Amino acid sequence: MDLIVFGGQSNMQGQSECLSENDVVKDAYEYKWLTDEVVPLKNPVGEDITYEETCGSVFSEEADQADWLQKHVTGSACFGHTNLVPAFCRAYTQISGRNVTAVHIAKGSTVIADWLPGSRGYEILVKKAAAARKKVNPDRVFFVWLQGESDAIFKSTAGYYKEALNRFCDALKKEIGICVFGLIRVGKFTNDERDEQIMAAQNEICRENPDFMMLTDIAAAMYEQPVYMNPYVQGHYSAKGLEKLGREAGKALAEGCML
Predict the structure, then answer these.
(1) Which end of the chain has a smaller Cβ tally under 10 Å, C or N?
(2) Separation CA 146–CA 242 (nearest Å)
(3) β-pair partners for 104
(4) CA-wise closest residue to 224 among 197, 174, 188, 259
C-alpha cells in the first residue's frame, strides 16, 4: 500500500464544470479525516474542513466565495464535480500494480505561505496525513503538489517560491515521512512574467533537489486548448483537463518510483 497526499489550491481542490464520471477506482481508496475512515476512491473527492476542525459545506453556486474561504481550511471538489485524484490513482495503480490510499488536502485562492509550517493549513495537512498513515500503515508516502497560481498573482519571485518549496518539503519529510515531493507544474494563469517566475522555480528545484520530481509540465500548453479549460471559470481546468493532468502525473510517479 502506498499513501499519496494531494495538496494545492483551486485546481487541486477541483473547480471543473461537471462530474464527468464517478466510477470507483480499482485498488484505490480515499482517507476521510473527519470520520477516520477509508472509502473506495471515486469522484467527487476531498473534505470540507472548517478552521474549527468540523465538517463544513461544499462550495456550490449558492456559496459566497469570501465567506466560504474565511470559514474553511480545506475543501472538497467544488460543486461535487470532477477532480484529478481518481484519474491520477487509476493510472498509478494500473502501472505500478500497487494499492493506494489518497489523502486530499487543498483549498482555492491559497498562496504557498498558507501551507508552510506555522500556518493553519499546514497544521491540518499534517494532522490528516499523519492520521491516514496510522490508519493504513503504508510502505511509502508521496506528496503531489499543484499550486502557484495565487503566488503568480501576488508577484512571488522564483527565489522566494523555491525557498518556500524547500522548507515545505523538509518539513513534510520530518512530519509525515514523504519520500518524494511530486510537482504538477502550473500553467499560465496570469499569462505574463509572473507565471514564468513560478514555473522557473518549479523547474529549478526538480533539477537541483533529488527529493523533488517533476510529474508533468503540460499544464502551460493546456491553457491554449479550450477543451481542457473550464469554460465558466477562467484559469481553471475542465473535467477533461483535470483527468488528463491526473493521468499524466500518475503515470510519471508510478514509472519514476517503481519498486
Answers:
(1) C
(2) 11
(3) 6
(4) 188
Indicate the pairing of strand 28-32 with strand 37-40. Answer: antiparallel
| C-alpha cell read off for 140 | 511509502
Cβ contacts of 170 within 8 Å, gap of 6 or more: none
Asked if 7 and 103 touch (Cβ cutoff 8 Å), the reply is no
Please check whether residue 211 lies inside any domain of the structure: yes
What are 166-220's pLDDT values in tens digits?
Answer: 999 999 999 999 999 999 999 999 999 999 999 999 999 999 999 999 999 999 9
Measure the CA–CA gap between 221 and 111, rounded to whole angstroms: 23
**Strand spans (E) along the chain:** 2-8, 28-32, 37-40, 49-50, 72-74, 100-106, 140-146, 180-184, 212-216
Residue 95 lies in a domain: yes
pTM, 2 dp = 0.98
| CATH number of domain containing 177 | 3.40.50.1110
Overall residue count recorded for the chain in this entry = 259
Phi first, then psi: give them for residue 257, nearest 5 degrees: -125, 35
Asked, for residue 74, whether it belongs to a domain, the answer is no
Question: Distance between CA 46 and CA 103 in Å, rounded?
Answer: 8
Which ranges in 97-224 belong to alpha helices (H)?
120-136, 149-153, 158-176, 193-208, 219-222
Q: How sure is the predictor about 234, in pLDDT bands with cuts at 50, 70 and 90?
A: very high
What is the count of structural domains for the chain?
Answer: 1
Pairing assessment for the beta strands 49-50 and 72-74 based on DSSP bridges: antiparallel
